[in-house]
Structure formats: C-alpha cells, structure tokens
Automatic annotation (TrEMBL):
It is found in: Cleavage furrow; Cytoplasm; Membrane. GO terms for cellular component: cleavage furrow; cytoplasm. Residues 498-514 have a biased composition (Acidic residues). GO terms for molecular function: metal ion binding; phosphatidylinositol-4,5-bisphosphate phospholipase C activity. The keyword Cytoplasm applies. Hydrolyzes the phosphatidylinositol 4,5-bisphosphate (PIP2) to generate 2 second messenger molecules diacylglycerol (DAG) and inositol 1,4,5-trisphosphate (IP3). DAG mediates the activation of protein kinase C (PKC), while IP3 releases Ca(2+) from intracellular stores. Essential for trophoblast and placental development. May participate in cytokinesis by hydrolyzing PIP2 at the cleavage furrow. Regulates neurite outgrowth through the inhibition of RhoA/Rho kinase signaling. This is Phosphoinositide phospholipase C.
Length: 790
C-alpha cells in the first residue's frame, strides 16, 4: 500500500486547500435525519418523519392507508371476516386487527415481504370463495416465503384501488432506497417506538429501551456516559441535535473509518486518484480514474466535495453499502451468460411436488404453489395427475390425505404466471396415473389453454442431434411425459417416468418381466398426450451415454436421489458425459414424508440439470438452490461449467484433482442483526458467523468464528477463515449468522449464498436474508475476501 504522503503528491498544487475546506465542512458525518419537531409532525405524529423521507406524506393513497380501512378477509365460503387494516407511520409495516389479541409482532406484516399485489379475482382463494364480491373490490397480497396469501374485499372499488396503488408506491420507494437510507429509516422507526410518551425527547430510560430494540446490550455505565456527552442542555433529556449526535455515535463504523483513513491520509477526504488506488487494491475490473470520478458523482453526499471530485467518509460508506460494494458481482445479477447452447448444458431450477404447500401426507394442494415457484425462478414444475370426477383429471399426492386441485386450473396458472419473471422455457413434468380418456382430456387442456406457448412439434429436425437452446424456446412450454414407441418393439424405449415404480422395483428383476411391463404400459399411453412429449420424452435410464446407436438427446431420465448418488459413486465420469447430451431429473426419496429436501449440490456436481426440490420447505438446501440461481438475471437457467458440457470430459466429481484455489475470508463486523424474539426486550443475540463451502465432496467444509456476547447491533470479530478448493467452478459459498447457545442448538439469524465464481474480492458487505429468502435489511456482514488461483 502506498503512503498517504506519496498519494498527495499526485494532486494538483491547488488541491490541498480545497481538501482541507471540504474536510472541515464534513468533520462530522453528513447529518442523519433529525428527530421530528412540532413543525413537521411534532408531538402528534412523529413517526410521519419516516414517510416524509420517503416522499409519500402528501400522497392521497398513502394517507388513506394511514387512516385505515375495514377490509373483509376471505378464507373460505363461510369464513369471511371484516378486519381493520392500517399502514403504520414508519411506512414499512401494516397493522391488522385480530379477533384474539396476540403479541404485537403477530399483528403486522412488512411491506418488503410482499411478493405481489393482484387486483380482482386473481388468486385461487378469491376465484373459489370471492364470487359474492365484485372483482373491482377485491385484491390479493401475496407474500414471499411460506406465509399464506391475504385475500381481501374492500367496501368500494375505489378503496381497493387505493390499497393497490398505495402498496405499489411503497414497494417501489423501498426498492429504490439506498442501504444508507434504509439504515436511517430503520433507526428512526425504532427511535419513534422507544419514545414512549411521544414528546420527541429521549430520557436515559428510553435510550436504554432503544438500545435493546436494536439488539445491543450496552453496559449501563458506558451508555449513560454516552448519553451525558450528548446531553448538552444538561436536562437529562436528549432532543433535536442531541439525539442526532447520539445516533451518529451509535452508528459509527470504526472499521470503515480505518480503511478510509489508510487511503485518504491526514486530510480525511479521498481524491479521485486515491479512490482509484482503493479500487485497484479491491481487484475491481475496469478500475480507471474516470471510473473513480464517476463513483464520486454517484455516491458522494456533500456537494462541495462532489464539485472538487473528492469523496468524504459518508460517500465512501454509501459506496460500500451499495450493490457495487456487495459481495455479489453486480454484473452477474443481470443476464450475462450465453443462452444459445443446448438445454442439457444448463442447470435448470426445478421443483418437486410443486402443487403442495406443506407435507406430502396431509398438506394442502394449491395452484398458488405454482405461482410462488415461478416467482422464485422455477422453470420445471411437477404435476401428479390422477383420475378425477366428471372426466376432469386432478392433481394431488396419490393415496394420501393431501387436497386435490383440477389439472386445468394448474395449466391456467402456468399460462398466467410462468413467464412473469423469466422468458425462458418451462418444463411440465407429468407424473401420469390417468386412464386413456382423461389423458386425452389433459392433452386437450394443454393445447387449448396454452395455445402457441405449447411446443407440439420439433423446431427443426424431428430427430435432432442435440436439444434446442433456451433462447430458441423463449416463452414456450415443454411437456415431459411418456412417448409411444414408433414401433412396439420389445426394447420399448422411453415409456415410464412413474417415480414410485423406480423406487419400488428391484433393479435385478428379470428382463422378460420388464419387456412385458413395457408392452402393457404402451397400451395405457394416450396418443394425444404422447404427441406432446417432443423434447422431454420420459425414459428409464438403462445405459449411460455414449450408448450404442444414434444419440437420444430428447430422452429424459428421472432418478431418485438414492439412485443418482449410486451412479455418481460408481460411474462418476460416465454420468457426467451422459449429462452433456441428455437431461436428467433427480427427485427426493418418497420416504421424506415431511417434504424434507436433500442437498442439490451432489447432483449438480455430476451435471444433472433438473435437480428437483420441495420449494415449500425452507432450509439450507433451498438456500443453495436460491444461491445457484441467484445469478444470470434469476432466469432459472445457469450455464454449467465447461467441464460439465464437453462430451469427452474427463471430470469426475469424486476425484477432482489437487487444490487449485485458496479462498480467504476475514470476517470483520456485522451490522443491525435482527432480534430473534421481539417480544422479549432483554433478549439480545450472541452472534457467530459460519462460512460453508458446498461443492465436490473434497471441497465441502465449514468454519466459524467465535461468538460475540450480547451484541447484534455492531459485533466485531476480525477472524480469518481459509479454504482450499479443488473444483472452484462448482462451489457455492454460504455465509450464515447464528445466535450461539451453549445448552441447545444455535438459532438461525440470517444467511446469504452465492456461487464462488460470482464472489467479488476486497472489502465487501453481505446483505443477509431470512429463512424464507426475504431481505433482512439493513442487516449486513462486512468481510474482506481474497481469492488466489494457482
């Protein structure tokens, strides 16, 4: 690192006086929004300061939401209750009335946890139970994660529209807020809650309450000393600028100040050349003086500094808290991969038992589960099809107590929602238990409802040598199902995809019984449905590619996790080669009654494309899935590494070779971790950080820091974790924060998972997510990352 004196020699002769002037102006960080005064809400509604910062206090729709509305919540034909819903003054939460009062946290939902707001009868619940209410009066609030939809009917169409428009404005403003704005908003929300008598003044007791709310157990003596240092009026109350000063001290980031001062030197501002040096040390691609000047214009808050191309500490913090300062490479969040390769060259986000919202024994089946899967980027969904009454096929988990939904309703949900997030093809994996008549009904629904979306014939040759690309199949729906053989020969390829049969059958059964079973099955396949299996013809995997005869790229095998693991162990490289030409779908064992998942990483290691998981079950397995498909615009397709695409690949995940990459992660600090028990004021987390590597078996490992006692607000570690990797192109890195407990398992606080290939080096913030994948903003980890490749 270059010394500050040498760096300052690069400035023009007139610059030091300007730098000193700017430094004097910003000796203290840019002011946080000051607490409310009577002129802007005062003692009556101090919380409106948060909405004022969002620029929405004068919006008529938001004002109507603040007043509240009596909306009818609809659960069934008989359960339709009127409840009061009201936007809270923080602009982040909506309070709602419950028949039986519960803990405060059970009476709110967060605006940032909303996945979508739909107008009219656009949910399964309102289509079934909302017929008594005009569509114009109805709306559905769909949430991220497992929370059920909120189906509502307003007294008038105008009131429904106010909530639809108001929520849209609040969500758009939240999405546009910088991390610093989110932090300011967050701290002032807690400040408002801690001000028990709403007089815009803070006693020491209220300050202590604030500290507990934001997850820090500060020593009483130290807290009181800090309180007294800010109490310039000496009246045992903080108000106005005094509260602002207290918050500024509370939110100080000493580790960021140290880094800033290493590059800025004595004048405490960064020139463009000094910022460039920081970018170069970070390993930023395309780091130029022009880029440094551009960053100053984007992130610097002080206009005088900006005019003279200088960056203050606040501008530096804004930059590091932005997406450009995050661990995830921002260039990988949009579409950046080649989408013109055959389908077999991609990992494809896939769901198992998609129709279920809970367990596979007695859970609820719902078309909403398909909508949620598509909202998470899923591109391959499963339909378990059974004989239904009135000639209409139904979908449910056969021979269990799970509820039933109509096949045609699911196909309508596919039509309406499959391409809202991603334009790339959707695969409908049919597990068919229907007779010929209802199979023909399924084919009819597929054709009439999907229309031109449905692939009904090959794009080019009817016997292609390779599968078409995602780009060629944009906006199209593929059916994976059984295919009638061209001639009913006894070798009978591509007939059965019934997963339970593969689970139950002994692989060593005699061949003559097998041939007889195939002939019997052939008679059960409807020609109408068979014709729709164009590029995804379900087949029992008998021989790994390359097999004798012409390649069969249109054949798809479905394997249980057990059989897939056996193939990986016994024929790793052959399985990899097979998956360069043909699609393989892997699904969970039927023994997972509670819809638990298996780790998808082992299947990805061998190039399996359709690694199906229970999307309704949160856990580390779904975190890995979300991390794998976090990149490439979250379109549900990720190009496999080159070693998994080459037909003559020598790669074997069981024998990946010697270490090729060293990953070093210095865990520095965390910021604003969430409280795990909001109802217990004195419950403060004892956080530790664990870093996990998920890749080939030789790379899978985990390391963790020590825990920090009673501090979820700004814990510090400064510990370095190091990993040796043999197949870095397949590795996922998972950052986990837990609340340490000496007598029971640690509690989950937050996590973030991403591919190693998308991990940026240098000082980075990691923006934590909840179990359900929702943002925990402003909660972050601050780390230094170094990747050395040999």
């Amino acid at each position: 690192m270059l010394c500050g004196r040498w760096r300052r020699c690069r400035r023009p002769p007139e610059e030091p006086p300007v730098a000193a002037q700017v430094a004097a102006q910003v000796a203290a960080p840019v002011a946080l929004p000051s607490p409310p005064t009577p002129s802007d809400g005062g003692t009556k509604r101090p919380g409106l300061r948060a909405l004022k910062k969002m620029g929405l206090t004068e919006d008529e729709d938001v004002r109507a939401m603040l007043r509240g509305s009596r909306l009818r919540k609809i659960r069934s034909r008989t359960w339709q209750k009127e409840r009061l819903y009201r936007l809270q003054e923080d602009g982040l939460t909506v309070w709602f009335q419950r028949r039986i009062p519960r803990a405060p946290s059970q009476h709110i939902f967060f605006v940032q946890h909303i996945e979508a707001v739909r107008e009219g009868h656009q949910s399964e619940g309102l289509r079934r139970f909302g017929g008594a209410f005009a569509p114009a009066r109805c709306l559905t609030i769909a949430f991220k994660g497992r929370r059920k939809n909120l189906d509502l009917a307003a007294p008038t169409a105008e009131e429904a529209q106010r909530w639809v428009r108001g929520l849209a404005k609040l969500r758009a403003r939240l999405d546009a807020m910088s991390q610093r704005e989110r932090l300011d908003h967050w701290i002032h929300t807690y400040l408002h809650r801690a001000d028990s008598n709403q007089d815009s003044k803070m006693s020491f007791k209220e300050i202590k309450s604030l500290l507990r709310m934001v997850n820090v157990d500060m020593n009483d003596m130290y807290a009181y000393l800090l309180f007294k240092e800010c109490d310039h009026s000496k009246n045992e109350r903080l108000e106005g600028a005094e509260i602002e000063e207290f918050l500024r001290r509370l939110l100080k980031r000493p580790e960021l100040e140290d880094i800033f001062h290493q590059y800025s030197g004595e004048d405490r501002v960064l020139s463009a050349p000094e910022l460039l040096e920081f970018l170069e040390d970070q390993g930023e691609e395309g780091a130029t003086l022009a880029r440094a000047q551009q960053l100053i214009q984007i992130y610097e808050l002080n206009e005088t500094a900006k005019q003279h191309e200088l960056m203050t500490l606040d501008g530096f913090m804004m930059y590091l808290l932005s997406p450009e300062g995050a661990a995830l490479d921002p260039s990988h969040t949009c579409m950046f991969q080649d989408m013109n390769q055959p389908l077999a060259h991609y990992f494809i986000s896939s769901s198992h038992n998609t129709y279920l919202t809970d367990s596979q024994i007695g859970g609820l089946s719902s078309t909403e589960a398909y909508v949620r899967a598509f909202a998470q980027g899923c591109r391959c969904v499963e339909l378990d099809c059974w004989e239904g009454p009135g000639g209409e096929p139904i979908i449910y988990h056969g021979h269990t107590l799970t509820s039933k939904i109509l096949f045609r309703d699911v196909i309508q949900a596919v039509r309406d929602h499959a391409f809202t997030l991603s334009p790339y093809p959707v695969i409908l994996s049919l597990e068919n238990h229907c007779g010929l008549e209802q199979q023909a009904a399924m084919a009819h629904h597929l054709r009439t409802i999907l229309g031109d979306m449905l692939v009904t014939q090959a794009l080019d040759s009817p016997n292609p040598e390779e599968l078409p690309s995602p780009e060629q199949l944009k906006g199209r729906v593929l059916v994976k199902g059984k295919k009638l053989p061209a001639a009913r020969s006894e070798d009978g390829r591509a007939l059965s995809d019934r997963e339970e049969e593969e689970e139950e059958e002994d692989e060593e059964e005699e061949e003559e019984a097998e041939a007889a079973a195939q002939r019997r099955l052939a008679k059960q396949i409807s020609p109408e449905l068979s014709a729709l299996a164009v590029y995804c013809q379900a087949t029992r995997l008998r021989t790994l590619y390359p097999a004798p005869g012409a390649p069969q790229p249109c054949q798809v095998s479905s394997l249980s996790e057990r059989k897939a693991k056996k193939l990986i162990r016994e024929a790793g490289n052959s399985f990899v080669r097979h998956n360069t030409r043909q699609l393989t779908r892997v699904y969970p064992l039927g023994l997972r009654m509670n819809s638990a998942n298996y780790s998808p990483q082992e299947m990805w290691n061998s190039g399996c494309q359709l690694v199906a998981l229970n999307f309704q079950t949160p856990g580390y397995e779904m975190d890995l899935n979300a991390g794998r498909f976090l990149v490439n615009g979250q379109c549900g397709y990720v190009l496999k590494p080159a070693c998994l695409r080459q037909p003559d690949s020598t790669f074997d995940p069981e024998y990946p070779g010697p270490p090729r990459t060293t990953l070093s992660i210095q865990v520095l600090t965390a910021q604003q971790l969430p409280k795990l028990n909001a109802e217990k004021p004195h419950s403060i987390v004892d956080p530790l950080v664990r870093v996990e590597i998920h890749g080939v078996p030789a790379d899978c490992t985990r390391q963790e820091t020590d825990y920090v006692l009673n501090n979820g607000f700004n814990p510090r570690w400064g510990q370095t974790l190091q990993f040796q990797l043999r197949a870095p192109e397949l590795a996922l890195v998972r950052f986990v924060v837990e609340d340490y407990d000496a007598t029971s398992p640690n509690d989950f606080v937050g996590q973030f998972t991403l591919p190693l290939s998308s991990l940026k080096q240098g000082y980075r913030h990691i923006h934590l997510l909840s179990k359900d994948g929702a943002s925990l903003s402003p909660a972050t980890l601050f780390v230094h990352i170094r990747i050395q490749r040999s």
